[in-house]
Design brief:
alpha/beta; 9-stranded mixed sheet; 6 helices; 21% helix
Length: 243
Amino acid sequence: MKPLRVTIWNEYLGDHSKHSPAGKLYPGGMHEHLKRALAAPDLEIRTAWLGKDINHGLSKKVLEETDVLLWWGHGAHGMVRGKVVDRIVKRVHEGMGFIPLHSSHMAKPFRALMGTTCTLRWNENKDKCVLWNVNPNHPITQGVPLHFRLEKEEMYGERFDIPKPDELIFVTWFEGGNVFRGSCTFTRGAGKIFYFHPGHETFPTYKDENVLKVIGNAIRWAAPGEKRDFQPNQKVKPLVEKA
């Protein structure tokens, strides 16, 4: 069986330089850290970032060769070109998996796929949080405890302006009392989407074994299914002849 082709995208701007908190936590950028941390024989991983080229590393060819796209965005959502967004949305409808992480709830591709503002409540209080596994039989939660704790994470809280999810996977409780539907799935066309909220750049979230297990499971869950010979708006002959 051929390995799944995964592209990990990251803004990777100046606040991720080697002298910044994020740069010290994730030398070379979170995209390169995740590439190393998620490496497995069944995954073929490449990375891309905002300033890589005019297409942010996501040319038509790259996306056609991507089975699952991970996306980490934060402060530069507006800099992502509309043509690239349209290309991503089209590929998701065709079957490419899409996993927006953390602040990517405001990423242009995610908002386009949701059709809502995707706004939420937040603060940077360095809250402890507990992710409660409310869907323990789901493929994304296999090998993951019924709950696990992160010592520091940016608080995201309700109301989260998204459409009703297909499935809730985790519900997160923050020590300040907020709760958040921060781990949920959607289907758009033939594509599977998993939004996963942990991952503030100044905390070692992507070094947590449970977080990495969830992301690895999600990649495999979001992989495209069997291709179907379907053409939208295609004129067809009646299946049954008129009497």
